[in-house]
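Progress narrative, Year 2. Work on AMP-dependent synthetase and ligase domain containing protein from Haemonchus contortus advanced from sequence curation to structure prediction during this period.
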Amino acid sequence: MVDYPLTPFHLQILERAVQYGEAVALTDDDGDVSFREIYELSFQFATLLDSNGLRKGESILVVLPNSRWYPVLFLGAALIGCPLSGINQDSTADEISYYADQSGAVAAVCTEGNFTRIKGILKVLKIFVFCSEEKYHQFSDAVSLPRYLPLWDSSLPSLFDGIHHEPDDTLLMPFSSGTGGKPRCVMLTHRNYSAATAILKMALFDQLVVESQRKTIALLPFYHASGFWALLYCLLEGCHSIILESFHPISMLEIIHKYKVDTLNVVPSILSFLCRMNTDCYDLSSVRTVLCGSSPLGKELCSCFLEKFPSVQNLIQGFGMTEVVVLSHITPLGLIDEKHLGSCGKLLPGFEAELRDENGDVINRPNCPGELFLKSPTVMSGYYESDEAAEAFHDGWLRTGDVLYYDEDGYYYVVDRVKDLIKVNGMQVSPSELEDIILMDPWVREVAVIGIEHPKSGQVPKAFVVLGEGVNRDVAKNRIISIVKARLAPYKQLRGGIEIVEMLPKTSSGKIKRCELRASMK
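Result:
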């Protein structure tokens, strides 16, 4: 059991902000922001929301890029008990309408660029729009920001003393990634965030703080569970976050070089970028710790990255999901040995785990894959007004939908999503296993494998491949077929064929949307 504070999570951050004072908390394209400024702006936002009729329990849809305003808006909304639901700023009008409906949002915050996409959503009662001072008059039917933020007054904090927050009140309502279908609105509580933070602080970050310069890049989307939790943790611990509005490899390299960043929080696609790029013009030797999650990190990519970046002392992989705030498994500090390369780590303290077979029976032996079930104070309270919440819980356990196994040393390995496993003549084939093998070919940049219908075998694997520039397609296909044939059993062969594509459909966090690939085959 891990102890965690019951103080409302946003108040923990604001109390620390008072302590850190003039220290730099955030840096973005507009300059530095101190912890004092975050504290004051949070109460200014809370006052604005309250004066516009927002009340405890009402959710707010946030359609913004990464910026200094995101955490301020979160803290201000939390002060009056309004959970945020963040989404991709590039979402279409139909997608925004879906998200607003799924979260029950009564207000939205956006930029001038996506205002027109939001304006027509009937359920949104109030729109707050970030716009330049010269254009505020164009948004007369919205509240222009930051123009109409009330001025700071030392009496503002006392205005919210009467709002009571329980540990199990909803704090944030992010959307699950939706790789297997439409995204679902996850309800996360103060208890969830406090527990997740205490667990990772004890198990990981307290061990890093001695060597760390306490500078990192906030480059993962803030509407994504992992990206936003990492930002909030940095605020809680007094670290300096340099914000990237959107991911760009060159910008990331320039920031590492300029600020001597020592800790990166990334996804596998970013590591793949770094492995392929020419980085000789940048001093990246400050990078000591890299945390990588979101999807499995293959052995080949691990080896390539560590060979190219010898300064990295900790390559930490993890397994997690929005439904548990951030992570349930991480690898230990240090460089993982060859035996455990590709593992997502060991179960974190504060979690209980079971692997269950197709019949629901618990698996109690190593190297035997089964669906992962979890218990923890970090587990969500449920999905917002959704019947799927009942399907997500079984006897008090969260059903993850992911197939894993553990070895004799207690290291866990992700096999695949239950829904993604390919059943060839009754035998299960993991898309991830095939993808890892195919990526051994240096001509291959990206790959995704799905199962397609087959009249005799039920399903067979098919690969969608993105090749490097100038590569002959026919020759590449033959190479891939040879590599797979040499390394995998006959029933795992690509009998569904290989399709060369320009790009793979992905979520904003880099996860492949297999559902779209499957839909393209119908």
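The longest helix spans residues 190-208. Residues 263 and 473 are 38 Å apart (CA to CA).
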